[in-house]
Amino acid sequence: MEKMSRVTTALSSSAVSGRTMFCHLDAPANAISVCRDATQVVVAGRNIFKIYALEEEQFVEKLNLRVGRKPSLNFSCADVMWHQMEENLLATAATNGAVVTWNLGKPSRNKQDQLFTEHKRTVNKVCFHPTEVYMLLSGSQDGFMKCFDLRKKESVSTFSGQSESVRDVQFSMKDYFTFAASFENGNVQLWDIRRPDRYERMFTAHTGPVFCCDWHPDDRGWLATGGRDKMVKVWDMTTNRAKEIYCVQTIASVARVKWRPERKFHLATCSMMVDHNIYVWDVRRPFIPFATFEEHKDVTTGIVWRHQHDPHFLLSGSKDSTLYQHMFRDATRPVDKANPEGLCFGLFGDLAFAAKESLISSDANRKPYPGGDRRYPIFFFKKPDPTEQFAHVSSALSVFETDLDSNRMDWFVKTAQLYLLSGKPFAELCDHNAKVAQELKRPQVSTTWTMLRIMFSDPANLTTPGPNHNLSKLGTLPLMNSFSMKEMGSVMGTESRLDRSKGESRQDNILLEPGNPHISNNNEENEETEGSEGQAEYMFGDAELDDDDLYSMEHDNQTEEQEYTLPQEAFQLRHEIMDNPSAPEHLQQDKADSPHVSGNEAEVTCLTPIESFSLISISQPLFSPHLPASFFCPIVREMLSYYAEQGDVQMAVSVLIVLGDRIRKEIDDLTQEHWYMSYIDLLQRFELWNVSNEVIKLSTCSAITCLNQASTTLHINCSNCKRPMSNKGWICDRCHQCASVCAVCHHVVKGLFVWCQGCSHGGHLEHIMNWLKSSAHCPAGCGHLYVTRLW
């Protein structure tokens, strides 16, 4: 045990001195308590019950209270308390429900004095009255608190908290008759020991069990509470209603809280699990601990200040079977490692930047913030003592505002409200979202949705031509896809020539009929290209055409059709083309001589094999005209990353949800979780709660889907006897009455139940809404006047 530092504190008639030191225990400790003169400490646990002397250099074992060959469960302690007026008097809370007092002045080895076995379950806490020698209070897992007079053999008062478990009880330091009790349902109750029938005040302090509470030693009305919600709250009890005046957010459940002597705003805490450190907080600065003790290697189970007037020594016991004395001067100061720089974006694009004042003050061009000079130090200090105050750190704040009109987020809200993420086929979702983006003047996003539909939609099934269709004579030909139907104009003359021997005109040809499902007019080109799922399929024989050929054919054909017009009589009649021509020269000669074919098309025709009878035709494909969806996944992944990097996580998350399994495996889970959390945070900042919940529900990331599964437990009390309801049914186990009866129809409400937070009466939502249309008073006849916000 290395000597770290030493301090001597002068007290009224004695002196407390020592250093940071520790000793190993025989077993893990559950609780510790110190005697009045700060010279001895008692350590209690399931398998340990010893008293150690606090000497200047070390702990010295003085007495082992576990005597006998087979110690009973009365020695298995959950809590221990050393009386602050009687130095020989101890009290322990046993795990078997017993409350035991110990008299150290007894000459025998067994120091047990009195045994109270009135509790039916484990006793969690015992507490002596600060000024009354013979008064002892206990709180048990059975939901009852009992007050004992040590001169009698049984309890003198029993207090029912109407809850499952009492976790802590503490007598007020300034009010003789008052004590506070904390419960597992999140409530804190204040009782008068003269009135055991009903509490004086009750309020909900935490969202979950309240594990500890402690009255301020100097300020009469301050009560500190700690709970499983990882918060320490300070309440002002001098007002009519308990008022929260300070709140400290920790990183784990708070198991113990103790005010620091002689320091009004300091308190010490330790955690029930995960975190092994002891923290001392300044409640005025709740975001960073004032001091930290990091010696323990396992959960700290008990903390106590060595003397009620000495703020420099803290004692602690732990599950790592060690007992420590911490000297405050040796504590770690987290503020020394704090970063004085900060950066944050506002909801509408404003940027706030904080940095050391020395760095900002050197900038001569810096203009003050319009709202006033924001260069305030983080804290102002009245006392110069650096060991008892936070390090003097001051930062200058600069705010960079953006033009509100150019950075409005109306599009974000409207897009979130109008987007469809599920409930319809994939193609309809894409079309709807593309239309929404187009209406909000976001063409790039709209085009992205359209391309996603084209990439991932199922191929369109073309209708098989009927038996009388003239193209049935052509047989099956190879297929080639294109993006436009303009190329169809290049074969008008060819197809007309095939049937001209039958006297059919070009306008009567089946390929040119407006109702033909296999072809669309030129003025419908844009709809086919952007919005339709139907695919245009073109026949070019076995010859391959590149994009340049298609492009040149398109423009040449348009020019030919616009400039060339000729009466039907100008065509010379020719012989009918046979099904199986003997040579391809006829087709090639006729094709080259046709006035409906451009020069580029004639050149392409020369490459057509002898099996082909037409440049462009429609038939059944020999291969799939669509690329597999997995082909597009890499580019879609890059697209989503682009949108996320640009700050549009709305688009990235929406596409993730709509595509689902098509793209989910291409993006790692951490990236998806980051996108989801960013989008959900934005939605909640804009108060789009329903959209946020829908995104969580539809999420493909397991870490996100569990977000709306937290804090879903609803504790219900019977409206008649006020006792907690079980999960077995609608009938209360105690009063045997139905708890959820509609105040209007007097039937049991088995579905959605709505009630008034003022009088607790309610019923079916529809019935209550209809009642409120004609009356503002409670339908149960209690006389309560309903307030709209309570519903």
From TrEMBL:
- WD repeat intervals: 116-158, 203-245
| Pfam families, per the entry | WD40
InterPro entries attached to this UniProt entry: WD40/YVTN_repeat-like_dom_sf, WD40_repeat_CS, WD40_repeat_dom_sf, WD40_rpt, WDR24
**Can you quote a single GO CC term?**
GATOR2 complex
Tell me the compartments it is located in.
Lysosome membrane
Q: Where is the composition biased (Basic and acidic residues)?
A: 496-507
Decide whether keyword DNA-binding is in the record. no
What is this protein's function per UniProt?
A: Catalytic component of the GATOR2 complex, a multiprotein complex that acts as an activator of the amino acid-sensing branch of the mTORC1 signaling pathway. The GATOR2 complex indirectly activates mTORC1 through the inhibition of the GATOR1 subcomplex. GATOR2 probably acts as an E3 ubiquitin-protein ligase toward GATOR1. In the presence of abundant amino acids, the GATOR2 complex mediates ubiquitination of the NPRL2 core component of the GATOR1 complex, leading to GATOR1 inactivation. In the absence of amino acids, GATOR2 is inhibited, activating the GATOR1 complex.
| Name of the featured protein | GATOR2 complex protein WDR24
